[in-house]
Design brief:
With 307 residues, the protein is of the alpha/beta class. The chain has a single domain, classed as Aspartate Aminotransferase, domain 2. The protein is 41% helix and 12% strand. It has a 7-stranded mixed sheet with strand order 1-7-6-5-4-2-3. The longest helix has 16 residues.
Length: 307
């Protein structure tokens, strides 16, 4: 059985890959999209050389000290009791719930185990030796690592004096850009890029490029969520995660919003198994009418007490 289908091979050749590069692409397919891009810190954790004491919160990873909600934990228990079954229905239910809340069709939503997986997939699906990645600096770099792994150029564009993304410089960084990555609020600076600047970037980006809008931390800000760009069928993919505000970093639940033709570009890169417990907890969390509001208020209160 061929690991790379004829359709995928033809797509890769059209995007500037050589047949010699297919070995690296095969690595993506067999090892899953995120495997080659662990940070040194993450690898140290996996090897047991960075063992943390029980109950410690990794501030550098922005872990929540509150953990999952009571309802989410109850949902995890129920899903775990059915752990002998695959429970694919939970991912379907999760996607349908997200679609309902975001005002899009279900085929505009793809569930993932967090948002890192689709971030890597977007880098692999939209960049190539002839299509670069453009992102802010400093910024969240795993996507850049994925692009470099397959020989794509990466343009790091300095943030503005207010630490927002310089959208005009990003739009002009490379007329052949395949993907423009914008994390809002930005990681690691926590700074905001305005909705007006994001709209300008979407309207003035290079033709054929896709804007990847990472909203992993959007619930901590007062900025509007930009699912409206997906509703308008723009060349935009929005990523969200339940790892941070919802306290589910270890349970793994997240999703990508975008046109079906854009989401299809994320699918060839690895298996991407989705944990049933994460989906169950995600459903319970998103169904809560008060969880996001209460957690956001708690975060503001602690931040104001600190600063």
């Amino acid at each position: 059985m061929e690991l790379i289908s004829r359709e995928v091979r033809e797509n890769l050749l059209a995007r500037g890959f050589t047949r010699r590069m297919f070995g690296r692409v095969t690595t993506m397919v067999t090892a899953a999209a995120s495997m080659p891009f662990y940070s040194e810190y993450a690898l140290a954790q996996l090897s047991g050389t960075a063992v943390l004491p029980p109950g410690a919160v990794k501030i550098n990873s922005n872990e929540s000290p509150y953990g999952p909600s009571k309802e989410a934990l109850q949902a995890v228990q129920k899903a775990a009791a059915d752990g002998h079954r695959y429970q694919h229905n939970l991912a379907i239910e999760f996607s349908q719930l997200v679609a309902q809340q975001e005002g899009v069709r279900p085929d505009y939503v793809q569930a993932y185990a967090g948002s890192s997986d689709p971030l890597h997939r977007a880098s692999l699906g939209f960049t190539s030796p002839t299509k670069s990645l453009v992102m802010g600096s400093p910024g969240y770099e795993p996507g850049a690592m994925a692009s470099k792994f397959i020989g794509s150029k990466v343009h790091m564009v300095a943030l503005t004096g207010s630490h927002a993304h310089d959208v005009k410089a990003m739009a002009s960084a490379d007329p052949n850009a395949g993907l423009i990555y914008l994390c809002n609020p930005n990681n690691p600076t926590g700074s905001i890029t305005s909705a007006e600047d994001i709209d300008w970037l979407v309207a003035n980006k290079p033709k054929g490029s896709v804007v990847l809008l990472d909203e992993c931390y959007i619930q901590f800000s007062d900025q509007p969520k930009r699912s409206d760009l997906v509703q308008q069928d723009k060349d935009v993919i929005v990523l969200r995660s339940l790892s941070k505000l919802y306290g589910m970093a270890g349970l793994r639940a997240g999703y990508a919003l975008g046109r079906p033709d854009l989401l299809a570009k994320l699918k060839p890169w690895g298996i991407g198994m989705i944990p049933a417990t994460g989906m169950a907890a995600g459903i319970a969390s998103l169904k809560s009418a008060t969880l996001e509001k209460d957690r956001k208020a708690m975060n503001k209160r602690v931040r104001n007490d600190t600063f």
